[in-house]
Amino acid sequence: MPETVMDKLVSLAKRRGFVFQSSEIYGGLGSVWDYGPLGVELKKNIKERWWRSMVHEREDIEGLDAAILMHPKVWEASGHLAGFSDPLVDCKHCKNRFRADDPRIKGTPGQPDAQCPVCGTKGSLTAARQFNLMFKTFMGPVEEAAAVVYLRPETAQGIYVNYLNVLQSSRQKIPFGIAQIGKAFRNEITPGNFIFRTREFEQMEMQFFVKPGTEGEWFEFWRAERLKWLHGLGIRPEKLRWHQHGKDELAHYARDAYDIEYEFPFGWNEFEGIHHRGDFDLSNHQRASGKKLEYLDPATNERFLPSVIETSAGADRTALVVLCDAYREEEVEGEKRVVLQLKPSLAPLKAAVFPLVNKDGMPELARRIHDDLRGAFNVFYDDGGSIGRRYRRQDEAGTPFAITVDGQSTQDQTVTVRDRDTLKQERVAAGQLAAYLNAKLAG
Ligand code: GAP
Description:
By secondary structure, the protein is α+β, with helices and mostly antiparallel strands. It has 13 helices and 23 strands. It has helices spanning 5-15, 37-56, 72-77, 80-83, 156-161, 163-170, 215-232, 280-289, 315-326, 362-374, 387-397, 407-412, 433-441; strands at 19-21, 33-35, 61-64, 85-90, 97-99, 129-132, 135-138, 148-151, 176-185, 200-210, 240-244, 256-264, 267-278, 295-296, 303-304, 307-314, 327-332, 335-340, 351-355, 379-381, 401-405, 414-419, 425-429. A seven-stranded mixed beta sheet has the order 3-9-10-16-13-12-11, sandwiched between helices. A five-stranded mixed beta sheet has the order 20-19-21-22-23, sandwiched between helices. α2 (37-56) packs across α9. The protein binds glycyl-adenosine-5'-phosphate (GAP). Glycyl-adenosine-5'-phosphate binds next to β10, β13, β16 and α9.
């Protein structure tokens, strides 16, 4: 089979230290991935950008970091215990398990005409049963029903149960929002496509609490804001589109929902959602906990349960969008080059510093430049192999600038700076490098 773009991206991600399979030396753990030295920087840059735009640049949004483990009643009230499930069928013959809507299944599961897509046996598929996607574990030393707790399947609930704490402690007024970045877990039945659908992932979620009756305008506001933010990541606009959920697609909590989809190498798929959740969550938590969660409007003395407009993005899926969008195969002077054209401010390494050759004072000067820049920028020193090979490695890592110390540098303290995308080289005074990089990395 020919290598697909995804195969190439997965192997680049491993080769350059972006993403490794979890527990690889033991054969890997299904759909769980680890971020290596470059991957952790890329994801951190995305998350920091999100946090800055949500929390630091807005007066009406506060941050939160709620625990992953929550009271089990949260998941009863939120509807996840009853409704967060996928219909599954089992093959009684080969013991494989599938989603009931797996397009490879021929016939109707549970009926004699149904055929197992793996072993091909007819009539061996059970009727569909609901399978809850939440991971269960036990709190304390006794593994009994009363001790069951869940790993959160979304970060949103940590926000709802803290909404009054945040409102009161921060002295916000409605409309206002709470933003959170954190891990979520889903025992997905059909995970795959690298870090697209995994069992452990990170979400960047913001819940915006609004007065009932104003949901429509805030829904539109957040749709526009989120698209603007994605354009700011440098993602090509023609690779993005909206998908409004039909009635049969809406999650159990949603009144209206739009996905933002990206055209991945494996097709158009969702990686962020804007959801109108109404007062579904707050009213359920109010009922189940017996605690009043109403807001008292100080201007009008009205009491009401706010409605929620949610923006929910996956940090890993957004990182995959950024990687897919940046991946290019090009021909340069008759040679193939693979390059990640990451926006410079997102790139894990901002610059690489090379001595042209390892003699004549070049390594000493290159080291000094590297050490001077290191306090302010994530830079990398490389003196291994030909200069061409060093450029190629940094192209694959998405490093936007390569600084080379050559024979002239030791004479006049200037260096060449090669631009990853245009391949143009400029001569810059070594003392001006920090200002040069700062100007290029803005935005
Ligand atoms: N609080 C709403 C919520 O969780 P969702 O559409 O189920 O909504 C939101 O998830 C985002 O979380 C998705 O757009 C996706 O980016 C990310 N996500 C969900 N399941 C995922 C998985 N199994 N692997 C990676 N990311 C996932």
